[in-house]
Each structure stands twice: as C-alpha cells, then as structure tokens.
Amino acid sequence: MFDIGFSEVFVIAIVALIVLGPERLPKAARFAGLWVRRARAQWYSVKSELERELADDELKRSLRQAQDDLRSAQQQLRDGDRALREGVDDLNRRVAGTGAAATAADDAAAAPRDPAALEDQALGDGASNGAASDRAAAYAAPAHAAADTAHAEPSHLDYSGASQPDYRPSTAQTPNDERR
Fold this sequence. Notes:
Strand content: under 5%
Mean pLDDT: 75
Helix content: over 70%
Structural class: mainly alpha
Low-confidence stretches: 141-150
Radius of gyration: 48 Å
Shape: rod-shaped
Distance between the termini: 65 Å
Number of strands: 0
Number of helices: 4
Largest sheet: none
C-alpha cells in the first residue's frame, strides 16, 4: 500500500507521544487501528466483489459460447439427418426402379412360351392364325398381371417396424463371470 519504513513509523510514534501524551496514546492507537482494519476490510470487500463479478461475467461468456456451440452442433446434426434421409429415399427410388425393370426382364425371360406361338415363329411365315395368337395372349396375360401385383411399389416407405439391434449386455452368466 504505502511505502513506510521503520524509521518513519518511529518518528510518527514519537510525535504522537509528545502531542497526545502517555494517557491518551493507547486510546488513539486503538482508534487508528480500528480505522485501518475497517479500511482494509472495505478494500478486501470491494476487491472480492469485483473478482466475483469478473468471474460471473467470464462464466456467462463461457456459457453463451457453449450454447452457441451446441446450437451449431444441433444444426449440423439436423442437416446431416436431412441429407441422410434424402440419400436413403433416393437410393430406395433407384432400387425400386432398378428392381421393377429387372423383374420385368426376368419375367419375360422366365415366362414359358406358348408352343403354338413358337410353332408359328418357326414356320417363318410372319402371319399367325387367329387361334394361335389368342392362345398366346391368354397364356401371357396372367404372367404379367401376377408380376404387377407381386412387385407393386409401397406408397409410403415406413421403417418403424424394422428391428433394431440390442446392445444391452446379456443376463446369462459366463464362466468368466464366476471369477469376478
């Protein structure tokens, strides 16, 4: 606080003894000590309150920073979720489109052929009689109708019924559990 050495304190004590006298000097020293203690206490109170306010401001600042970081992380998660859902939907559309085209090709290749139509084609005249073409149409029609119903696209893809893996520890005891 103040730079007062021993010699200055000694001079002040001698002057106080001469001015106040020996009977009032102890009371004056107690009174001066009381005021010095009060001044120090006030100084420490102001100092601690200032430090507390600075700590509160720092804590508020770090709390705001943490909230901003959490908000940005939340937004990134939402964006990632949205992109992932769009990617899954796009992939489902591609698979469904590819699956429908592959199924139609498989149905055409695997469908048994009408012997009358094969006979007409083997003759090579290009014109088939009406009975053979009627039989071929009747024979091929149920295969396409069955293919349309078997590979119908769902109107809404819902994954709520999909099972999720269970990562909880099992309750069954193993031989290693007995040693623990």
